Amino acid sequence: MTKRIEIDDDIYRHIASHTQHIGESASSILRRLLGLDQSDKRADGAPVVEPPVAEKAHGRTIFDSMTSADLAGQRSVVARFLYILAMLHKCHRQMFPKVLQISGRDRQYFSRSAAELEASGTSTNPKQIPDSDFYVVTNNNTTRKKSMLNQVALELGYNQAEAEKIRDFL
Questions:
Q1: 12 lies in the same domain as 88
Q2: Model pTM score
């Protein structure tokens, strides 16, 4: 049986800051923090299944670094898109230049400068990927942004199932 409680925002942020994987419920976080039974159940009673995570040479993946609370804090599609790219850059700094190969039929998607993206098409609206020296075109629809995330994940060594999970974060 599930009960609802109201908590203050600062308490919620504290609980959310202890998230260990995307999709982890507040109840499982509290169970862990309070030393109670570790069975991880969703509100409907079904077990939470962690996404498959490929072993990476550097040992870190986006699934290890990004929490659902962090993602939920991004209020727009563009903000979530940039946040996911920033986390991928953080986890795969050495491999990230591979994204420079990703382009559309008529425009370049990634660059090391905003001017280069602006020169590759009209209305590109380039934005810098936070905490990186890479820029990305943001004037695409959500479907195209998802496709771009899928391509980035594949370039960085994720398998198709993992790439689809990353794409679906958007």
A1: no
A2: 0.66
